[in-house]
Amino acid sequence: MTKTAFLFPGESFQSVGMMSAMAEPVIQNADVRVYHDAEQIREALARQLWQPVRWTETILSLVDSGVNRFIECGPGGVLSGLNRVIAPDSAVFALTGKDIMYEALQVEVSDE
Description:
alpha+beta; 4 helices
C-alpha cells in the first residue's frame, strides 16, 4: 500500500501526520543538519521551502560521513552533474533508464 500526502491551502507540513521516526537519518539541505525525529523533519521540510539550498555543503557532509555513491531519481541529471564536480571520487548516477538503475545498484566503489 502506498501512502501519499497532499497539502491544501492553509495546511502545513506539521499537519501531515503519517511521518514517523526514520530508520535512517535525514540530512536537511537548508541547514545541513541531521534529523531523526519525525517532528523535527516536518519542521525542517517547512523551512526548506523558503531557505536557500546548501547543496555543496550537503554533499560534502554526506561524503564526510562515508557516502560514496549518489543516485539521482527523476528527469534530467542536473544534480548528478553537480555531484560529479563536488565529489569527484564518488560514483554518481542519474536514473535515466532501467539499465542505469541496475548499474547504479551493483557498482562497487573502492576505498582508496
